[in-house]
């Protein structure tokens, strides 16, 4: 199966009328062909069937790669003697080299062919997605630099694979970030199946890297064992060998030097960003895979695209800013006390109390916004949009991480001592998180599927502002200009309908709340692992895997929901 250009091919008789009415630029369309559907009389029908078979074939390729890598990683976990971490790294390095070869070929060959990128999806790869991709990609590169430095310091007991693997990872992350930044909107029209297979291979590699990051706790176990050894020495006991199998921590202890500690702490701090980077890449590459061979009609292009304006909201920014400021204060207090040698019990109470106050407000706001969506008369946007469909899937899928962690916490608390004060707070926190995720998902998804408002007065107001902004503002006119802007802000706010006002206020409030709830776990506030309750109930390795599975999804959900809420705000 391969994508070929059929611009000079004679069309079938019943398609002559359709092609005759086509616009002049359609002579350069590269229709897809497949030997499985060579008997189809219509060129368009062969194109559709070939597209489906190409997607099926590339999807099967990705599925087999994921299953193979998952089998390696699972074997490493359950039988670390036969399959070691080095074997998994070798397999992933081979996959990354293959992905690098295809990405370079796409950049230098496929994308430069004539009529390769005729259409571009304006909805794909928004700025906030690509910006976060660069941010997390930079942190992932820095993470691998710390890992290389940490392995070089312990070169006497570390294998050379532990230096080669992060080196290839740096090259892979940098090349992939460049590729996604420049080509995330492409609707490629040549070499369809090769591009689909390359994209699916890259998606499968990113998924396996995420799975390895979730399950690989080697360095964390080394740090945990070193802490136990220090505690035993302070207690006057000889170090005992009760460490998990496969961790040679006695021979690979980090030297008591500043450089080693910096590499170690830097690796632990940046560890969540790598998992976040893999998830974002998978989502963007999936949209690119859906857009291969896609031809966007003029009906899919919105001539008037809503722009982000802060006008029309008052209470949402005020309440959201208060939540952010209080959250930063709670986060700083938590980081100072919880990261010490003996975490204070009160800091956990303060942390969970903040969530217990904030989450009900977010739930109420999302419920009110959903009710307003049901009352308003905006029509649903039924145009085909792969980006919006993926947004819905990601919101639902990413929410499962935190919901799963919450249910694990609920079971652990109910089975131990639910009447304890801290346990009661954790129980309330877990239940409220489940409700907050569900209500916010309903509000965002309902808002994304509706068409934006088209208000004539907004256009007139914008023209009025542009006419005023063209003139120069002198130093003496600054006071009058500030007064004019303030009156314009009040005028815009007063002319909005009450439904639009409430939707904008709620959306902006939820945006700021999700930002602070993204900042706190991303930069080190992990009470679900540090309070010790679930860890003692499920065991270190089991709870580590659960947290590493749910926490990156939770962080990704908060960041992704910010983008969805901003779209809801703009459309209102």
Automatic annotation (TrEMBL):
Q: What species was this sequence derived from?
A: Alectura lathami (Australian brush turkey)
Q: Where are the transmembrane segments?
A: 56-82, 88-108, 128-151, 163-181, 193-213, 268-289, 310-334, 354-372, 392-414, 426-445, 506-525, 537-557
Q: What is its main location?
A: membrane
Lineage top rank: taxon: Eukaryota
Xref: PANTHER family: PROTON CHANNEL OTOP (PTHR21522), PROTON CHANNEL OTOP3 (PTHR21522:SF36)
The family database entries (Pfam families) matched by this protein are listed as: Otopetrin
| UniProt subcellular location | Cell membrane
The UniProt keyword set, sorted, is: Cell membrane, Hydrogen ion transport, Ion channel, Ion transport, Membrane, Transmembrane, Transmembrane helix, Transport
This protein's GO CC annotations: plasma membrane
Q: What is this protein called?
A: OTOP3 protein
Membrane association type: Multi-pass membrane protein
Q: Does the keyword Methyltransferase apply?
A: no
Give a GO molecular function annotation for the protein.
Answer: proton channel activity
The record's similarity note reads: Belongs to the otopetrin family.
Q: Which InterPro entries match?
A: Otopetrin (IPR004878)
């Amino acid at each position: 199966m391969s994508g070929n250009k059929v611009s000079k091919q004679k069309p079938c008789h019943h398609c002559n009328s359709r092609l005759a009415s086509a616009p002049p630029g359609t002579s350069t369309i590269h229709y897809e062909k497949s030997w499985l559907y060579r008997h189809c009389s219509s060129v368009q029908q062969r194109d559709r069937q070939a597209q489906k078979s190409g997607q099926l074939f590339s999807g099967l390729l990705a599925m087999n790669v994921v299953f193979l890598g998952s089998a390696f990683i699972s074997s490493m976990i359950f039988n670390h003697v036969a399959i070691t971490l080095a074997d998994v790294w070798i397999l992933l390095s081979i996959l990354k080299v293959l992905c690098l070869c295809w990405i370079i070929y796409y950049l230098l060959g496929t994308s430069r062919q004539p009529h390769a990128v005729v259409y571009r999806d304006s909805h794909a790869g928004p700025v906030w997605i690509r910006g976060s991709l660069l941010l997390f990609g930079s942190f992932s590169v820095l993470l691998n630099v710390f890992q290389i430095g940490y392995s070089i310091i312990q070169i006497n007991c570390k294998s050379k694979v532990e230096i080669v693997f992060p080196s290839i990872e740096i090259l892979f992350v940098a090349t992939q970030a460049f590729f996604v930044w420049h080509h995330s909107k492409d609707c490629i029209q040549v070499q369809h199946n090769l591009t689909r297979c390359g994209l699916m291979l890259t998606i499968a590699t990113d998924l396996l890297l995420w799975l390895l990051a979730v399950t690989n706790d080697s360095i964390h176990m080394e740090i945990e064992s070193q802490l136990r050894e220090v505690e035993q020495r302070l207690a006057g006991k000889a170090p005992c060998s009760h460490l998990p199998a496969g961790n040679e921590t006695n021979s690979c202890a980090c030297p008591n030097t500043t450089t080693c500690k910096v590499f170690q702490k830097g690796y632990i701090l940046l560890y969540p960003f790598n998992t976040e980077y893999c998830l974002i890449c998978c989502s963007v590459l999936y949209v690119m895979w859906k857009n291969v061979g896609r031809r966007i009609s003029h009906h899919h292009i919105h001539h008037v695209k809503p722009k982000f304006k802060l006008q029309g909201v008052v209470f949402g920014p005020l309440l959201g800013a208060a939540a952010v400021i209080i959250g930063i204060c709670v986060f700083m207090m938590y980081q100072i006390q919880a990261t010490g040698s003996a975490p204070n019990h009160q800091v956990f109470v303060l942390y969970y109390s903040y969530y217990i106050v904030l989450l009900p407000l977010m739930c109420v706001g999302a419920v009110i916004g959903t009710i307003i969506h049901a009352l308003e008369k905006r029509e649903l946007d039924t145009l085909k949009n792969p980006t919006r469909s993926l947004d819905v899937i990601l919101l639902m899928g990413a929410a499962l991480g935190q919901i799963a962690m919450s249910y694990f916490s609920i079971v652990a608390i109910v089975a131990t001592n639910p009447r304890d004060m801290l346990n009661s707070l954790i129980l309330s926190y877990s239940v409220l998180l489940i409700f907050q995720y569900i209500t916010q998902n309903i509000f965002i998804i309902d808002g994304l599927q509706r068409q934006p408002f088209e208000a004539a007065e907004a256009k007139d107001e914008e023209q009025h502002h542009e006419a005023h902004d063209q003139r120069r503002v002198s130093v003496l006119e600054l006071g009058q200009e500030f007064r004019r802007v303030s009156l314009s802000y009040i005028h815009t706010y007063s002319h909005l309908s009450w439904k639009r006002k409430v939707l904008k206020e709620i959306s902006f409030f939820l945006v700021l709340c999700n930002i602070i709830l993204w900042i706190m776990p991303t930069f080190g506030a992990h009470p679900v692992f540090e309070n010790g309750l679930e860890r003692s109930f499920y065991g270190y390795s089991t709870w580590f895997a659960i947290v590493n599975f749910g926490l990156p999804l939770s962080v990704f959900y908060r960041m992704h929901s910010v983008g969805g809420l901003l779209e809801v705000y703009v459309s209102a």
